[in-house]
Specification:
alpha+beta, about 45% helix, four-stranded antiparallel sheet, 10 helices, DNA-binding domain-containing protein, about 20% strand, about 280 residues, Arc Repressor Mutant, subunit A, six-stranded antiparallel sheet
Length: about 280
Protein backbone atom coordinates (compact mmCIF):
# COMPACT_ATOMS: atom_id res chain seq x y z
CA UNK A 1 0.00 0.00 0.00
CA UNK A 2 1.30 3.45 -0.89
CA UNK A 3 2.37 5.52 2.08
CA UNK A 4 0.39 8.73 2.36
CA UNK A 5 1.74 12.04 3.61
CA UNK A 6 -0.68 14.77 4.62
CA UNK A 7 1.10 17.70 6.23
CA UNK A 8 0.22 21.31 6.95
CA UNK A 9 2.28 24.09 8.48
CA UNK A 10 1.30 27.62 9.41
CA UNK A 11 3.97 30.24 8.76
CA UNK A 12 3.61 33.07 11.25
CA UNK A 13 6.02 35.31 9.32
CA UNK A 14 4.06 35.20 6.05
CA UNK A 15 0.69 34.51 7.71
CA UNK A 16 -0.18 31.62 5.41
CA UNK A 17 -0.64 27.86 5.42
CA UNK A 18 1.43 25.36 3.44
CA UNK A 19 -0.20 22.03 2.53
CA UNK A 20 1.58 18.94 1.28
CA UNK A 21 -0.20 15.82 -0.02
CA UNK A 22 1.88 12.88 -1.20
CA UNK A 23 0.71 9.47 -2.37
CA UNK A 24 -3.02 10.16 -2.12
CA UNK A 25 -5.87 8.84 -4.29
CA UNK A 26 -8.67 10.81 -2.62
CA UNK A 27 -11.42 12.31 -4.72
CA UNK A 28 -12.42 15.82 -3.64
CA UNK A 29 -16.10 16.72 -4.20
CA UNK A 30 -17.25 20.16 -5.27
CA UNK A 31 -16.35 22.68 -2.56
CA UNK A 32 -14.81 26.13 -2.07
CA UNK A 33 -12.51 27.98 0.34
CA UNK A 34 -12.74 31.46 1.82
CA UNK A 35 -9.05 32.08 1.00
CA UNK A 36 -6.78 32.01 -2.06
CA UNK A 37 -5.13 28.71 -2.98
CA UNK A 38 -1.97 28.61 -5.10
CA UNK A 39 -0.76 25.07 -5.68
CA UNK A 40 1.05 22.82 -8.11
CA UNK A 41 1.07 19.18 -9.14
CA UNK A 42 4.35 17.40 -8.40
CA UNK A 43 3.26 13.97 -9.66
CA UNK A 44 0.03 12.55 -11.03
CA UNK A 45 -2.75 13.56 -13.37
CA UNK A 46 -6.16 14.86 -12.30
CA UNK A 47 -9.43 15.98 -13.73
CA UNK A 48 -10.23 19.37 -12.24
CA UNK A 49 -13.54 21.19 -12.51
CA UNK A 50 -13.53 24.84 -11.42
CA UNK A 51 -16.39 27.26 -12.01
CA UNK A 52 -18.02 24.66 -14.29
CA UNK A 53 -14.95 24.43 -16.56
CA UNK A 54 -13.04 21.15 -16.87
CA UNK A 55 -9.25 20.91 -16.95
CA UNK A 56 -6.77 18.04 -17.09
CA UNK A 57 -3.80 18.89 -14.87
CA UNK A 58 -0.41 17.16 -14.84
CA UNK A 59 2.99 17.41 -13.18
CA UNK A 60 4.35 20.95 -13.32
CA UNK A 61 0.94 22.62 -13.65
CA UNK A 62 0.02 25.43 -11.25
CA UNK A 63 -3.57 25.80 -10.03
CA UNK A 64 -5.11 28.99 -8.61
CA UNK A 65 -8.42 29.30 -6.78
CA UNK A 66 -9.95 32.60 -5.71
CA UNK A 67 -12.01 32.71 -2.52
CA UNK A 68 -15.39 31.00 -3.14
CA UNK A 69 -14.38 29.44 -6.49
CA UNK A 70 -16.20 26.06 -6.51
CA UNK A 71 -13.88 23.24 -7.54
CA UNK A 72 -13.63 19.45 -7.52
CA UNK A 73 -10.99 16.97 -8.67
CA UNK A 74 -10.27 13.28 -9.07
CA UNK A 75 -7.40 11.06 -10.20
CA UNK A 76 -7.66 9.73 -13.77
CA UNK A 77 -4.35 8.00 -14.51
CA UNK A 78 -4.52 5.36 -11.77
CA UNK A 79 -1.50 6.82 -10.02
CA UNK A 80 -1.33 8.68 -6.75
CA UNK A 81 -1.19 12.45 -6.40
CA UNK A 82 1.69 14.54 -5.03
CA UNK A 83 0.57 18.13 -4.51
CA UNK A 84 1.74 21.23 -2.65
CA UNK A 85 -0.09 24.50 -2.05
CA UNK A 86 -0.05 27.71 -0.07
CA UNK A 87 -3.28 29.19 1.27
CA UNK A 88 -3.43 32.98 1.55
CA UNK A 89 -6.08 34.77 3.56
CA UNK A 90 -7.88 37.63 1.75
CA UNK A 91 -6.54 40.31 4.13
CA UNK A 92 -2.94 39.21 3.43
CA UNK A 93 -3.53 39.22 -0.34
CA UNK A 94 -5.33 42.56 -0.14
CA UNK A 95 -2.45 44.25 1.70
CA UNK A 96 0.09 43.00 -0.80
CA UNK A 97 -2.07 43.88 -3.81
CA UNK A 98 -2.37 47.41 -2.43
CA UNK A 99 1.44 47.72 -2.42
CA UNK A 100 1.75 46.40 -5.97
CA UNK A 101 -1.22 48.12 -7.63
CA UNK A 102 -2.09 51.03 -5.34
CA UNK A 103 -5.68 49.80 -5.34
CA UNK A 104 -7.33 48.76 -2.09
CA UNK A 105 -9.29 45.82 -3.50
CA UNK A 106 -9.10 42.05 -3.60
CA UNK A 107 -7.58 40.83 -6.87
CA UNK A 108 -9.24 38.12 -8.92
CA UNK A 109 -7.27 35.57 -10.92
CA UNK A 110 -8.92 34.74 -14.23
CA UNK A 111 -6.82 31.66 -15.05
CA UNK A 112 -7.27 28.63 -12.81
CA UNK A 113 -4.59 26.47 -14.45
CA UNK A 114 -1.13 27.56 -15.63
CA UNK A 115 0.16 24.65 -17.72
CA UNK A 116 3.82 23.66 -17.29
CA UNK A 117 4.37 26.93 -15.50
CA UNK A 118 7.76 28.43 -14.74
CA UNK A 119 6.25 29.41 -11.40
CA UNK A 120 6.05 25.79 -10.21
CA UNK A 121 9.78 25.59 -9.22
CA UNK A 122 9.51 28.98 -7.47
CA UNK A 123 6.44 27.81 -5.58
CA UNK A 124 8.15 24.56 -4.62
CA UNK A 125 11.21 26.41 -3.32
CA UNK A 126 9.02 28.70 -1.20
CA UNK A 127 7.02 25.72 0.04
CA UNK A 128 10.18 23.89 1.15
CA UNK A 129 11.37 26.99 3.03
CA UNK A 130 8.09 27.08 4.93
CA UNK A 131 8.06 23.37 5.78
CA UNK A 132 11.71 23.49 6.85
CA UNK A 133 11.05 26.57 9.03
CA UNK A 134 13.73 28.60 7.30
CA UNK A 135 14.57 32.16 8.29
CA UNK A 136 12.50 35.11 7.15
CA UNK A 137 14.66 37.00 4.61
CA UNK A 138 14.92 34.51 1.67
CA UNK A 139 11.47 33.12 2.38
CA UNK A 140 9.76 36.51 2.42
CA UNK A 141 11.66 37.65 -0.66
CA UNK A 142 10.53 34.53 -2.58
CA UNK A 143 6.94 35.08 -1.46
CA UNK A 144 6.89 38.72 -2.57
CA UNK A 145 8.44 37.95 -5.97
CA UNK A 146 6.02 35.08 -6.58
CA UNK A 147 2.94 37.11 -5.70
CA UNK A 148 4.13 40.07 -7.74
CA UNK A 149 4.40 37.92 -10.87
CA UNK A 150 1.03 36.28 -10.26
CA UNK A 151 -0.68 39.63 -9.74
CA UNK A 152 1.02 41.28 -12.70
CA UNK A 153 0.43 38.50 -15.23
CA UNK A 154 -2.69 36.65 -14.15
CA UNK A 155 -4.98 38.92 -12.12
CA UNK A 156 -7.30 41.82 -12.88
CA UNK A 157 -5.07 44.11 -10.81
CA UNK A 158 -3.34 46.91 -12.68
CA UNK A 159 0.25 47.78 -11.90
CA UNK A 160 1.34 51.13 -10.47
CA UNK A 161 3.62 53.40 -12.53
CA UNK A 162 7.34 52.71 -12.05
CA UNK A 163 8.56 53.72 -8.61
CA UNK A 164 11.30 56.33 -8.04
CA UNK A 165 14.91 55.23 -8.32
CA UNK A 166 15.73 55.79 -4.61
CA UNK A 167 19.45 55.75 -5.43
CA UNK A 168 20.64 56.99 -2.04
CA UNK A 169 18.35 54.60 -0.16
CA UNK A 170 19.64 51.62 -2.16
CA UNK A 171 23.21 52.70 -1.44
CA UNK A 172 22.30 52.85 2.24
CA UNK A 173 21.05 49.26 2.05
CA UNK A 174 24.26 48.11 0.35
CA UNK A 175 26.44 49.81 2.95
CA UNK A 176 24.35 48.40 5.78
CA UNK A 177 24.56 44.84 4.41
CA UNK A 178 28.31 45.13 3.81
CA UNK A 179 28.85 46.29 7.41
CA UNK A 180 26.42 43.88 9.09
CA UNK A 181 26.59 40.73 6.96
CA UNK A 182 27.36 38.56 10.01
CA UNK A 183 24.06 39.59 11.64
CA UNK A 184 20.52 38.44 11.01
CA UNK A 185 19.08 40.91 8.47
CA UNK A 186 15.42 41.12 7.53
CA UNK A 187 13.41 42.93 4.88
CA UNK A 188 11.46 44.59 7.69
CA UNK A 189 14.63 46.15 9.05
CA UNK A 190 15.82 47.31 5.61
CA UNK A 191 12.38 48.81 5.00
CA UNK A 192 12.55 50.72 8.30
CA UNK A 193 16.10 51.82 7.51
CA UNK A 194 15.10 53.42 4.20
CA UNK A 195 11.45 54.32 4.75
CA UNK A 196 10.51 52.30 1.61
CA UNK A 197 7.92 49.53 1.69
CA UNK A 198 9.29 46.00 1.45
CA UNK A 199 7.82 45.41 -1.98
CA UNK A 200 9.14 48.66 -3.51
CA UNK A 201 12.51 48.20 -1.83
CA UNK A 202 12.81 44.68 -3.24
CA UNK A 203 11.79 45.77 -6.72
CA UNK A 204 13.92 48.95 -6.84
CA UNK A 205 16.99 47.23 -5.39
CA UNK A 206 16.72 44.37 -7.89
CA UNK A 207 16.33 46.80 -10.79
CA UNK A 208 19.33 48.85 -9.67
CA UNK A 209 21.71 46.03 -8.70
CA UNK A 210 20.57 43.19 -10.92
CA UNK A 211 20.11 40.86 -7.95
CA UNK A 212 17.76 40.78 -4.97
CA UNK A 213 18.77 42.09 -1.52
CA UNK A 214 19.06 38.54 -0.16
CA UNK A 215 21.27 37.48 -3.08
CA UNK A 216 23.39 40.57 -2.45
CA UNK A 217 23.74 39.61 1.22
CA UNK A 218 24.63 36.03 0.26
CA UNK A 219 27.26 37.22 -2.20
CA UNK A 220 28.89 39.46 0.41
CA UNK A 221 28.93 36.56 2.87
CA UNK A 222 30.44 34.16 0.33
CA UNK A 223 33.16 36.66 -0.66
CA UNK A 224 34.23 36.92 2.98
CA UNK A 225 33.92 33.16 3.43
CA UNK A 226 36.32 32.54 0.53
CA UNK A 227 38.99 34.66 2.22
CA UNK A 228 38.62 32.74 5.49
CA UNK A 229 38.74 29.37 3.71
CA UNK A 230 41.89 30.46 1.88
CA UNK A 231 43.47 30.94 5.32
CA UNK A 232 42.65 27.33 6.21
CA UNK A 233 39.74 27.92 8.61
CA UNK A 234 37.38 24.92 8.79
CA UNK A 235 34.01 25.36 7.02
CA UNK A 236 31.99 25.07 10.24
CA UNK A 237 33.84 28.05 11.73
CA UNK A 238 33.60 30.01 8.48
CA UNK A 239 29.84 29.47 8.39
CA UNK A 240 29.56 30.91 11.90
CA UNK A 241 31.82 33.87 11.17
CA UNK A 242 29.97 34.90 8.01
CA UNK A 243 26.41 34.86 9.32
CA UNK A 244 25.02 31.59 7.96
CA UNK A 245 22.49 29.81 10.17
CA UNK A 246 24.32 26.47 9.97
CA UNK A 247 27.00 24.63 8.02
CA UNK A 248 24.49 22.89 5.74
CA UNK A 249 22.98 26.22 4.64
CA UNK A 250 26.48 27.62 4.11
CA UNK A 251 27.58 24.60 2.05
CA UNK A 252 24.53 24.69 -0.19
CA UNK A 253 24.79 28.44 -0.81
CA UNK A 254 28.56 28.28 -1.41
CA UNK A 255 28.25 25.46 -3.93
CA UNK A 256 25.41 27.24 -5.70
CA UNK A 257 27.56 30.34 -6.27
CA UNK A 258 31.08 28.90 -6.58
CA UNK A 259 30.48 25.41 -7.96
CA UNK A 260 32.55 23.77 -5.23
CA UNK A 261 31.83 22.86 -1.62
CA UNK A 262 33.62 24.98 1.00
CA UNK A 263 35.87 22.00 1.85
CA UNK A 264 36.82 21.49 -1.79
CA UNK A 265 37.62 25.19 -2.13
CA UNK A 266 39.67 25.22 1.10
CA UNK A 267 41.77 22.24 0.00
CA UNK A 268 43.02 24.15 -3.04
CA UNK A 269 44.86 26.59 -0.80
CA UNK A 270 45.80 24.16 1.96
CA UNK A 271 47.51 21.86 -0.54
CA UNK A 272 49.34 24.76 -2.19
CA UNK A 273 50.60 25.94 1.20
CA UNK A 274 51.95 22.53 2.22
CA UNK A 275 55.72 22.18 1.61
CA UNK A 276 56.63 19.63 -1.04
CA UNK A 277 58.72 16.69 0.28
CA UNK A 278 62.42 17.10 -0.52
CA UNK A 279 64.16 14.50 -2.62
CA UNK A 280 67.21 12.79 -1.12
CA UNK A 281 70.32 13.07 -3.27
CA UNK A 282 72.86 10.30 -2.91
CA UNK A 283 76.47 10.99 -3.75
Amino acid sequence: MTREIRAVRYDADLKLEAYRFEGIMQKFPNHFHDYYVIGFIEQGQRRLICNNTEYIVNSGDVVIFNPHDPHACEQIDGRTLDYRSINIQPEVMRAFALEVTGTDALPRFAKHVLYRSELAPLLRELHLMILERQSGFPKEESFLLLLEQLLREYSNASEQPPSPEWTSEIQTVCEYIESNYTQSITLDHLSELTGISKYHLLRSFTRAKGITPYSYLGTIRINHAKKLLEQGLPPIEVAYRTGFSDQSHFTNFFKKLIGLTPKQYMRIFVQEAEPKPSKEIRV
